[in-house]
Design brief:
The protein is mostly helical. The chain has one domain: de novo design (two linked rop proteins) (Up-down Bundle). The chain is built from 4 helices and no strands. The protein is elongated, with a radius of gyration of 14 Å.
Length: about 120
């Protein structure tokens, strides 16, 4: 798989969208440590894709994709808490949860393509 730049990678594009949604959705959350953690985890997804790509080595890119996939799992885990603690609605939870599943699948496909 060949990309001209990391911005062309669908997983990066979708993780950026997820990050923007999370920033907006948790903007008024008063649990500052929770808000900070879910935001940092979502940023980590997109930034690790970008950083790994820019290393210009398939092994390095793959390593950073695994980190990114771990971060998307962290976001998904925190979404369970967010809905149960009533920080977000059930509808918001369903939307973000499905986005994290999709991003994880795309990242898995990228990892496989680098083998």
């Amino acid at each position: 798989m060949k990309f001209e730049r990391f911005e062309d990678i669908v997983a990066w594009q979708k993780s950026k969208e997820l990050t923007l949604l999370i920033y907006k959705l948790f903007d008024d959350c008063k649990d500052y440590s929770f808000k900070d953690q879910i935001r940092r985890a979502s940023v980590s997804v997109m930034n690790n894709i970008a950083e790994g790509y820019e290393r210009k080595s398939n092994n390095e890119f793959q390593r950073f994709l695994f980190i990114s996939k771990g971060s998307v799992g962290e976001v998904r885990s925190m979404l369970y808490l967010a809905v149960e603690l009533k920080y977000i609605t059930e509808d918001s939870y369903k939307d973000l949860h499905s986005r994290t599943i999709e991003i994880a699948k795309i990242i898995s496909g990228l990892i496989k393509s680098l083998n």
